[in-house]
Every structure is written in structure tokens, then in C-alpha cells.
Design brief:
Largest sheet: 7 strands, parallel
Order of helices and strands: EHEEHEHHEHEHEEHEEHEHHHH
Strand content: 15-25%
Strand order of the largest sheet: 3-2-1-4-5-6-9
Shape: globular
Structural class: alpha/beta
Oligomer: single chain
Number of helices: 12
Helix content: 25-40%
Distance between the termini: 48 Å
């Protein structure tokens, strides 16, 4: 039995489907409208309130420690899991886990990557911590609205590069972390197979849509103002702009071969991701 925190998010739902045949129990604050298939056991609990997880963890073999779901409770959740006989913990951290906290944009949206990474490694259990790079899916959040509205994408740092990771590659590696032993005791850096600039990612989305998308670089203050107007927290926006500026000349996380080594096949490309998600960006014009 594998217990999943963060199960109602994108990665958690994909992982629940991936592991369904091996026994999955998901923890959610709202079990009655969670919407999981019949083969997935749904248990009420709040991962940030460890005392509520006893029913979920009792009799379980493994635990998925999601950095946003458990938040500051990572160590206490792991301690309870160990007390109740859980044998393995798999943490979802991030590639920038060792950066200063104020240089990690996702911390300002609730992620506690360093905490889950350390809690897993210090757990005394079998453990794995996965450290993915930026998700390819971030392109939909950053540019989806503009692309649905037209062919011009206004954003910062046209040449900024990263190695976007397909969410299904992450889930496939998570499956290996739960079901195999090869990754035990490791912190694993995961990336997509190629380093791409913002401008190139927009171009590849255009190819998937059959549209000539145009990237228009704008100054960081203007981009930040737009993000704030769209409701993003100011500390998050500040950290994101600082990250772009600090790594504008050289990628922060170049591609690693880990996905291919672990899965025995090439990592999915951003072009493949864009083709799969083309309808999310709108119909061809």
C-alpha cells in the first residue's frame, strides 16, 4: 500500500493512476469530491496536520512526500510514518533545493523542497528524493493566456534557457522509486533532454499549433507588474525575476541523463509535450 500526499494535484493524480494496480491510498481534506477511480482508496486527512494521517499511514508500506502538500510538517509526517511501520519514503523536492530560500520562487507558493529532501534522507527508512527541473507545464501557466488570445507572446529574457521536464517522465521515475530498489538512498536530479530558451519554447508551441508565434521580449519590471496584476505574490515574482537575471547567460540546470538511465528510454522532448498539450493553448488559426 502506497500513501500519496498531494494527490489532488497534477503529479499526484497521474501517480495515483500509475500505481493503482499496486495499492494506492490518497490523503485529501475533501474525500467526498476527490474524483479518483474506484481502485484508489481515499482517506480524509490534512498532510500539514500529521495527527490526522494515522488512519492513512497505518498498514502502509510507502509514502509519497509532496513538498507543497506537507509544507512545514515534513519531519513530523515522516516520524509518524516510521512509527506506524512505513518502510519507504519518496520525496518530491526540486532542482534548486540547495539555493538560498529567498532564491527559490516556489517557496513563496508553499513548496518546502529542502524540508522534504532532508526529512526523507534523515528518516531512517528506505528513501529516495527526486529533484526535478522546471516542468514543461509551466509554459502553459506563463504563456497560455496570451497564446489563446493571439500570436504574440510578451515575456522577459528571450534567451533564458532551462531544461523543461515532461510531467509524465517525472511520474514514470516516481513509479520506479516506489516499485524498484535502484534509486534507494539517492538524491536524483531530473531534467528534460535539452536546454531551450524561452523564445525557442514559444516557437515549438507554435509549431505544435500550426501558428507563427512571435516572442517579444519586454523589460523585467513590466513583466513583474503584469504577474502581480494577475494575482501572483510579490515575493514569488521578485524571486522569479532574480532567477532569470542571475542565469540569463548560462542555464542554471543543464540537461542530465538521469531520466533515460532510469527508464531505459529517451526523455520526452518539449516538442512532444507541446504537441500533446496543443489543445490547451487553443485551436490553430
Amino acid at each position: 500500500m502506497i500513501v500519496l500526499t498531494g494527490a489532488t494535484g497534477l503529479v499526484g493524480r497521474l501517480l495515483a493512476t500509475e500505481l493503482e494496480d499496486h495499492g494506492v491510498r490518497v490523503v485529501t481534506r475533501t474525500p467526498h469530491n476527490a474524483g479518483f477511480p474506484p481502485g484508489v482508496e481515499v482517506v480524509e486527512g490534512d498532510p500539514q496536520q500529521p495527527a490526522t494521517l494515522e488512519n492513512a499511514l497505518r498498514g502502509a508500506d510507502a509514502l509519497f512526500l509532496h513538498s507543497r502538500a506537507v509544507g512545514d510538517a515534513a519531519y513530523d509526517v515522516v516520524a509518524l510514518a516510521r512509527e506506524l511501520g512505513v518502510r519507504r519514503v519518496v520525496a518530491l523536492a526540486a532542482a534548486n533545493v540547495d539555493d538560498r530560500p529567498d532564491a527559490q520562487p516556489s517557496r513563496f507558493r508553499g513548496d518546502r523542497n529542502k524540508e522534504v529532501d532532508d526529512a526523507a534522507a534523515a528518516s531512517g527508512l528506505e528513501w529516495v528524493s527526486l529533484r526535478p527541473s522546471s516542468f514543461a507545464l509551466n509554459a502553459l501557466t506563463a504563456w497560455g493566456g496570451q497564446i489563446r488570445a493571439g500570436d504574440d507572446v510578451r515575456y522577459v529574457y528571450a534567451g533564458f534557457e532551462e531544461s523543461p521536464l515532461h510531467e509524465r517522465d517525472l511520474v514514470d521515475v516516481l513509479g520506479q522509486a516506489f516499485l524498484g530498489d535502484d534509486l534507494l538512498g539517492r538524491r536524483v536530479d531530473l531534467t528534460g533532454p535539452e536546454s531551450l530558451s524561452h523564445e525557442e519554447m514559444v516557437r515549438q508551441i507554435g509549431v505544435a499549433l500550426g501558428r507563427p508565434l512571435r516572442f517579444q521580449e519586454i523589460p523585467a519590471p513590466a513583466a513583474a507588474k503584469g504577474m502581480l496584476a494577475n494575482g501572483l505574490p510579490e515575493p514569488f515574482v521578485t524571486a522569479m525575476m532574480a532567477r532569470y537575471a542571475a542565469h540569463a547567460a548560462r542555464p542554471q540546470f543543464p540537461p542530465t541523463p538521469e531520466v533515460e538511465k532510469i527508464l531505459g528510454r529517451p526523455a520526452r522532448t518539449f516538442a512532444e509535450w507541446a504537441a500533446e498539450h496543443a489543445t490547451d493553448f487553443g485551436a490553430p488559426r
